[in-house]
Fold this sequence. Notes:
The chain has about 400 residues and is α/β, with parallel strands linked by helices. It has 13 helices and 14 strands.
Amino acid sequence: MRHDYQGLPQRPLAKARLVYGLIFIPLIFLPLFALIFLALPQPLSGYENPLRVGFGGALLGNLSNYGLSNFYGVEYAIRNVNAKGGVLGRHVDLISEDDSCNPAQATTAANKLLNSGVSLIFGHTCSGATRRALSVYKNKALVISSSATETSLTDKGLFPYFFRTTPRDDAQVKLLIALIKKNGYKKVAILHDKSDYGQSLAEMAQKSLRERPDEVEVVLFEAVSSGQASFEAVLSRIKTSQAEALLWGGYYNDAGKLATQLRQRLPQVVLLGPEALFDPRFLMIAQEAADGTYCAGQENLALSPAARAAVADHRRKHYSKEIGIYFFYAAGAAQALFAAVNKVGSDQDLAAIKKRLQEDTVETIMGPVRFNAKGDIIGAKFKLYVIKYGKYQEVNL
């Protein structure tokens, strides 16, 4: 039998040519396909089309611990939501501007944030700076503060797109007045630092006490300049007034010096103050002179497993830096705002976002968050504390 060996390789060779043709001919056109594909409109990823939000507050200066506490809370909420896919499927980016709790700087910071294109803003930190910034934002941005407590920021309806997760000054004034009556102080001196926050608080306390002059007498009401080294002159007048208690309207930096000098000159006079004194920096400045001071302060929100996990996450990120007193209020503000934006389906429809914040209750790390028609949070409250051996102890009225 004859075998044609020459013909044997021809059939596999023909198959090979066919296979190679099927592989390499499309490869010639791949660059053309790629160009056509790239020319088509492509959906942006969450990182390429981020949702940009702003933060304005005291990141520098004497009151920066207040601002940083707010910043850390917002930052935590953003880190948390980004890990879950962002907001509206978009990665959230934070743009921050410092105002150092200075109203003039707050104007600059607010303009910078608006010029950067953000319309959702967290801040500001102090009441005076917040008021000035809100006059810039007007209806161009929705703003949530976690620390601006001055009552008229929401009461007068001047800033319809302003919300806050902190209780207001009138709530803490009620606590301090109740304490004055419970402890039986008959003569009270009131000082404030001329800030929007301090003056408003002092005037509310004065008005409340003067409504019952037969119970408590306001024997001195004065303003002092923030940053002064000596309170010698006003302490002399307090001594002459025979005041039993001194109510301070202002921040911890001045209160720490005041407490020290009060203890040296008039150790029998009890110092009372707002939540601005509910801060480790006040203890650092006043040291043992802080003992016996009464102040309003935030509730302890760090007890839940979620809160403890948030604190641990923050400390890993920031090398064990303290969260401060506004961390949970700021994180709750961000979580509530992000929930509203997701439900509305847009970060630009401020009216719809406002409606959701007022009508929906959102479970956050600070507890349930919903706002009333004025923009104030519903349900949050201050506690009353006394300092003993360098620690804050809750007081039951």
